[in-house]
Amino acid sequence: MEPNAVQLSGAEILVQALIDEGVQYVFGYPGGSVLHIYDALFKQDQVKHILVRHEQGATHAADGYARATGKCGVCLVTSGPGATNAVTGIATAYMDSIPLVCITGQVPTPVIGSDAFQEVDTVGITRPCVKHNFLVKDVRDLAVTLRKAFYIATTGRPGPVVVDIPKDVTDPNVKIPYDYPRDLRMRSYHPTDKGHLGQIKKALELMLQAKRPIFYTGGGVVLGEASALLTQLVRLSGFPITSTLMGLGAYPGTDPQFLGMLGMHGTYEANMAMHETDVLIAIGARFDDRVTGKIEHFCPHAKVVHIDVDPSSISKNVRVDVPVVGQVASVLTDLLRLWKEQAPAASAVRPVADWWEKIEAWRRVDCLHYDRASDKIKPQFAVETLYKVTHGDLYLTSDVGQHQMFAAQFYPFEKPRRWINSGGLGTMGFGLPAAVGVQLAFPQAQVACISGDASILMCIQEMATCKQYNLPIKVILLNNGYMGMVRQWQEFFYGSRYSHSYVDALPDFVKLAESFGHVGMRVERPGDLAAAMQEAFAMKDRFVFLDVVVDPTENVYPMIAAGKGQHEMHLPPSLSERELA
Amino acid sequence: MRHIIAVLLENEAGALSRVAGLFSARGYNIESLTVAPTDDPTLSRMTLVTTGNEEIVEQIKKQLNKLIDTVKLLDLTEGPHIEREMMMIKVRAEAGNREELKRLTDIFRAKIIDVTDSSYVVELTGASKKLDAFIDAVPKGLIVEVVRSGPTGIARGEKGLTL
């Protein structure tokens, strides 16, 4: 401790710690337990506070900011309902390993446990959906706890950390010396960095002997900033690559070696290649059930290499032959070096030619086929038009459902951190507030939120936030009047009994947007769509809500039904059986 | 298979609930769990007994290690180790069976630590199976109350599970 350290209250310590962490934005909503903190925020201008309209929006906005920038997102909510409203967003970040520090107010320490006004056991409620959480009972622990929170959230496998702060801990009248502990060491937390070289060599051996190899990569490549290294390795090896929903953009989506997304709504070529591969190289992916389908049928012929920073991801769902625990970027650096030393030069150009022939045949099935001549706007057409109008240069956030899958299938992302969606938790309402975080991070960039008529209503109040901060986000609403994905499952598996999946009494979205002070537009004919999108994106300083009326009966294909093997895909009905053989 | 796992944890509020919550959230079996601070008051030592196939136990250990409060972990089952559990058992000890219960206590090298006209409290320490055997040996109908600590364990040899 420096002898002449500055004297700060708990609330001032919190704000100063955020400044010392380089925090640009705090997304929050005030309330009784955090009023001391809000007063301290008022008296400075280094950290900008963004007022959302619901605490769920605060967490998603901080999350969207984190996904787009790679930095830690920060949100601030009050005790009780503030904290419980934040839980959905915290769980969303947890499932997708997003670095987030969520500061929650708590009732004063003397009344904790007395069922005080706006008291909940925040640490207890959030425990199963955080990487770690803290209750700070003494102002002298505050600075070090905040340093720990940022350190834990951003290192190893990232994740959300909740810091619960009772109101008396931020008392403006209790001042203590402030000294931010920059060199933090924790004896109980040592995230892995480098992978074991022996294991990496084993992985290389398998790759060099492979006849039908494939890379299967996930969100870990994005989180681990390993996109460039992955691209190098994939190109050097000549192997095909498929990606999970979370990994899209880590490898250029338009590259011929990219087979598209795999899994439940993955491409035919990606899933068939997974089914027939002899060496699977999984990188920063976690063998989620939406990827594997029925485990017994998953990659039945494959030796599996798995590179991941989290040891508990290894052999959790699928048995792994060569585990490599380490930071993806560090492991790929080693693997690339070894590949260059050992791989025969000839393998630089598509070494596995007959494997590629097979893949190209699967590709010719054209599994994403849809009716382009339809007089209704097909959702696939809407996404393709969005791609053309934005020239692929877009930050695209998404809600959850059919529109999310169509976007993943039809909008190829060339760069990481451009595709921002809730993959693990599947949180409807994520897209709009996430776009708030993204647009603040990149004020000059084109940011759009693709959504459905059901999802958008779950956090629609954030249109007010967009107005307050003049965020020129474009909402592309694929409006089919249904909870499309629920309707699809009911059509396939429940005898077309559409139980409560029809969204009766939708608002007039154009007027709704206008009432928030934004521009609303509605498109009903395919021929008008491109022009409408161009008009929307041309309004560079306006939030535009584009209500696109799409074919209500369209389904997402291909589809692997839950519990089926990855080779048992439903293809679009427009493709005849004959074409498949 | 049964595994006995020793964990050194930061002696923080809530550390125990993190472990208990982990087991319920992931559906792991937990047979017993004991915890107390060590000679270093900043550390708690937990012993837990669980069952599952090798893959599940491997996941349990990884998930325990992943908890931020976990400092070190050792699966005692992987090597030679000593396991002890303590039991206090209250038995009806009336004129007709006082002597037999006293003999049984001696045979098991247990101790009588409380006596009334009609009851004994017997204290017994040993491997869990020995405690089971004592319970089985007490004549039917005489057991009033059983309290067991759950097993704790330590590895044999000179190495210790310390910082």
* Global mean pLDDT of chain A: 95
Order of helices and strands of chain B: EHEEHEEHEEHEE
Number of H- or I-type helical stretches of chain B: 4
Stretches of chain A where pLDDT is under 50 for at least 5 consecutive residues are none
Shape designation of chain B:
elongated
Low-confidence stretches of chain B: none
Instruction: Name the shape of chain A in a single word.
Output: globular
- Secondary structure: number of strands of chain A: 22
* Mean pLDDT figure of chain B: 95
Number of helices of chain A: 21
Strand segment count of chain B: 9
| Computed Rg of chain A | 25 Å
Strand content of chain A: 15-25%
Class per helix and strand makeup of chain B:
alpha+beta
- Biggest interface in this structure? A-B, 19 and 20 residues
Q: Write out the strand line-up for the largest beta sheet of chain A, numbering strands in chain order.
A: 3-2-4-5-7-6
Cα(first) to Cα(last) distance of chain A is: 74 Å
- Percent helix of chain A, as a range, is 25-40%
Task: Please tell me how large the radius of gyration of chain B is.
Answer: 19 Å
Quick overview of this protein structure:
The complex is a heterodimer of chains A (581) and B (163). Chain A is α/β, with parallel strands linked by helices.
Keywords:
heterodimer; A: 581 residues; alpha/beta; 22 strands; B: 163 residues; alpha+beta; 4-stranded antiparallel sheet
Mind sketching the topology for me?
The complex is a heterodimer of chains A (581) and B (163).
Chain A: E1 7-9, H1 10-20, E2 25-28, H2 35-42, E3 48-51, H3 55-69, E4 73-77, H4 81-95, E5 100-106, H5 122-126, E6 132-135, H6 142-154, E7 160-166, E8 175-177, H7 197-209, E9 213-217, H8 219-223, H9 227-237, E10 241-243, E11 258-261, H10 268-276, E12 279-283, H11 289-292, E13 303-308, E14 322-325, H12 328-342, H13 353-363, H14 379-390, E15 395-398, H15 402-410, E16 419-420, H16 431-441, E17 447-452, H17 462-468, E18 474-479, H18 484-493, H19 509-515, E19 519-523, H20 526-538, E20 544-549, E21 559-560, E22 569-570, H21 577-580
Parallel strand pairs in A: 2-3, 2-4, 4-5, 5-7, 6-7, 9-10, 9-12, 10-11, 12-13, 13-14, 15-16, 15-17, 17-18, 18-20, 19-20
Antiparallel strand pairs in A: 1-8, 21-22
Helix pairs in contact in A: 1-2, 1-6, 3-4, 3-16, 7-12, 9-12, 10-13, 14-15, 14-20
Chain B: E1 2-10, H1 15-25, E2 32-37, E3 43-51, H2 54-66, E4 70-75, E5 81-92, H3 98-107, E6 111-115, E7 119-126, H4 128-137, E8 143-148, E9 152-155
